[in-house]
Amino acid sequence: MDMPDNKLSWLALLESRHPTEIELGLDRIKQVADRMHLQPESAKIITVSGTNGKGSTCAILESIYRSAGYKTGRYASPHLIDFNERIQLDGCDVDDQLLITAFTEIERVRGDISLTYFEFSTLAAFWCFKHYEAVIWIVEVGLGGRLDATNILDADVAIVTSIALDHQDWLGSDLTIIGQEKAGVFRSGAYAVCSETVNNQGVIKVANDINCQLFIKDQQFKFELGTSDWLWQGRDLLQNTISYSQLPIPNLPVVNAAAALQAIVLADLSVTKTAINQGLSNATLPGRLQELTKQGTDYILDVAHNPHAAHYVVQELKRRSIKPDTMIIGMLSDKDVAGTLAELSKLQCSNIYLVTLDVHRGQKAAQMAEYVSKDLPIRQFDSVESAIKQANLQASTVLICGSFVTVGKSLTLLEGY
Fold this sequence. Notes:
Largest sheet: 8 strands, mixed
Strand order of the largest sheet: 4-3-2-5-1-6-7-8
Distance between the termini: 34 Å
Strand content: 15-25%
Radius of gyration: 21 Å
CATH architecture of the largest domain: 3-Layer(aba) Sandwich
Number of strands: 17
CATH class of the largest domain: Alpha Beta
Oligomer: single chain
């Protein structure tokens, strides 16, 4: 076949080619990865799975390692605005030409093996990392862990962040079983870090079964958050206690920073306290409590789309003394709308704008309204744009949250991408 000659044509081809959006299993992608020799020879690999906090953990890892002078590759999904966001080389979006070269190489070697959109993009990311000679590969799991396409790599250190109900159609509703799936990225004889607040027996069982050294929050590592800084204490490779004091509070969740620090110690690349301080101060992630002002209105944007993430947003806004008067929320149809809005309603916003997402799996505003209390001050809008226009007329502080689609569209409108 003739290869596409531009990125948009490639992405359209990938979207149209495979019959299903998600197809868990590693056989097909592993065959192609082996043909491409994608396993790195000397790079360190940190893989991050979990329900919430994966992106923040990866962003903190990347920021600290870059501050320490290492060449980094970070893979994340989904993207907010542009596909290139998924593949970061030293903190910058991959350029179109390198991406097209990666796609072309995958197409050349895959033969008759069918790949999903996510599998294709995962292979492209790993090809770019190897081509760029990244020293540290930071890999965010897409769905679950054990059968996710990213799990073709053997992580030197694997992190499990939070474990909560999400993607129940694929992962079920038993938190122990979900924990086992997410711990599927652990490797025998390697290291694992778990920042789950309530220790998950599924995660612990997997680590024990495969003889993986597991470092659990509040057991092997912990942190204390002060008013202007924080303290981290953990263990090194010899199980000696080490600590860092007077750390700067990042703009991302400190619990994820604590897990990232433990992983950095275990990955055993030289990182100074100065690099840690600088990396924590510089770590950002679009769409995670991102603040911006447009025409005199203050906006906070966050991709919280389940109750666990919504709870964090509420707590963090209160900690920062931010009181939104208006909330705009749009979600996908397979998410827990009622539970998420129950958490967000604790902000007691004067206006709650439910928006219809006109995408695959998008939830209609009218459907969302059926799941929430009739006592809430709800209005329905047929698009993110119409909700933002109304907010501009009457609101001073607006929280925009829910799907990546909601936040991505909002950033496009507010920042003029």
